[in-house]
Amino acid sequence: MTKARTLQPPLAIVAGGGTLPFAVAEAAERGGRDVVLFPIRGAADPERVTAYQHHWIGVGQVGRLRRLAWNAGCREMVLIGSVVRPAIREVLFDTDGLKLVWRVVQVFRGGDNRVLSALLQHLEDNGFKIRGAHEIAPEIVVGVGRLGSRAPGAIEQAEIVRALGVLEANSPFDVGQAAVVAGDQVIAIEGPEGTDAMLARVAEMRRNGRLRTAAGVLVKAPKAGQDRRVDLPSIGPKTIKGAAEAGLAGIAVLAGSSIVAEPDRFAGDADRAGIFVVGVRPDGSSE
Fold this sequence. Notes:
elongated, 2 domains, Rossmann fold, Cytidine Deaminase, domain 2
């Protein structure tokens, strides 16, 4: 039976890479709400986008996004999915972007948090309410406990606690949301390259013999002061594949502040890859 449509205006979803934008779109539609996708060129999956009303946008086309979303009747917007931030010289700004170029130059000197804050402020100034993906699709939020049949052992538990400490210490510097720890060693900290590229770097270190420690864990947690409506730490099929190829024992994320598309399917993928995935409290506990 088709879900009755609500009287709410359509929801605008700015879609980056990965499966999360589509999980949010599906959740909105299950709730009877229409959606309009604004997939980002070079990031969003072209094949999946075609299932929805959509308008492609470039990274610098803030004005195009604003006009098309408003004309489509959208008054609320979700920004979700991975995007590799380009150098400012590579961004083709539209008229709206050019009007804000002085502000954009300033935020590009900072980290991702400053870029996102400026974008959100501009959209809100133009009448849009920014909603968190977890508000639309609460089922994608990772809770406390394991996803799948495997759980971390005592060694992995200690590594999780150490990695959380590393992320907390680095948080004020807007460095990244992920770290890899093996034993007493901090193997890698996420930078602008993103989690997938960081895991690929760890895998390469194992292949060339530069990393000889056993297993290890990937831990993801939000940065201090991060706007929880956007850019929450996320995990997906690529994260599992990358962690397995890097020889890690498992993945831990901060519960209540991390998201995953299709949790049940994700848990099965983790079991097949032979790694654990667990949602933890700030102290690293998961029981």
